[in-house]
Amino acid sequence: MLDTDEGACLLPVSESMGYAEASLLEPWGCVLAAYTQRRRLEPKAGGSMWILGRPEDDREYLFSSGLEAPDTIVMTDVPATVEKLVEQTSARKVVRNGIGPDDYQALVDELTGDSGFDDIVMLDPRSAATVGAVARHIARRGSLNLVGQIALDDLVDADVGRLHYDYIAFLGGQGPDIAASYGEARNRCDLYPKGTAVFLGAGGPMGMMHVQRAIQQPDGPRRIIATEVSDERLKTLRDRLAPLAESNGCELLTFNPQTQDQSLHDFVMAATDYQGADDVVVSVPIADVIAEAATVMNPNGMLVFFAGVPNGTLAPLNLSTVFLNNTQYTGTSGLTMNDQQQVIDLAEQGNLSPGCSVGAIGGMRAAKEGIQAMIEGRYSGKIIIFPQIHDLPLMGLSELKEKLPDIAGKLEPGDMWSAEAEAALFEKYWRG
Question: At 121, which CATH number?
């Protein structure tokens, strides 16, 4: 209802959308935002760029586009061909050769005011430790472009918190054109068409929404592996989403790593003929889980960090495959009004059912209990409180058959909430 710089914050909702569905536009918008490009994929106009090379590298590089964008370009041990390319630009040029990780912070403080470089390019990187040290100095929404043909000597301890909250981007390519790493053609953000997607933490309310979105996405994944440490939540997920998956021609597999004899890695590899998953979405804010998730991807896969961990949280990632293949590491936090509008549009088109994520309902007097149930994770789906109804006790949708059979009869297959169930509920309880 506020008119902001981004437009109006009042969204018109059609009569066909129920109250429960409308109340879920915000969380659903966050889910959709996770697959909308938020990273900056081109050198920043007017920004700062740091290019680091190796003295032994005599390869001839190109920079077909984007080198004219920065106002400042810092060069450290770059090949002669790159130095010539930089000399042709109008940018302020700074040369700092022979420096190492112990010198990086002083350079950042001097030239960026401790905000970090908007774009960093590393040519022929070999040391994972050096890449990790350099990556700490990427500015918010900045990028690290790795260009090389030989794998790093180890995994890189990467700040997965910043991938989620600061939208930093790890880009790469084999060269010789440095600019080939940039752009959306090489850096996708949505699920791979007709591929295999793995969802960790799939049994929670938000995780289940990711799985549902993948099932209902036109040309989405054909195989979905949902992992969760609770058998009860996995059962709820199967009961609720298996009918939807079947109707959409999608194979739905579930896996509990705490009760199975094999590891998640082995399970995913067996399910994919040892190719690995095309996409892995993590809704668990634990660095070790994020690191494990990265091991089940194929070299051209995408890892989406949806659950936020604090900035400064490090996880070992294989950044070699970013430039040798096309591995993507992405993360998002929050949403825009456009994301919520997209939920409405998809719902009206029949390509998304927001009400499917409802796990429990209650009246206004049950609001306090609903908050406690959310804290405890009592229900797999979202808890909806209807302020129009005062005395409706809090109950999961699976309880409706016993407690409110006339309402339960209006649910969709899999005991999923529907506009018909909501209309019947209001007819029975709303006295306004």
Answer: 3.40.50.720
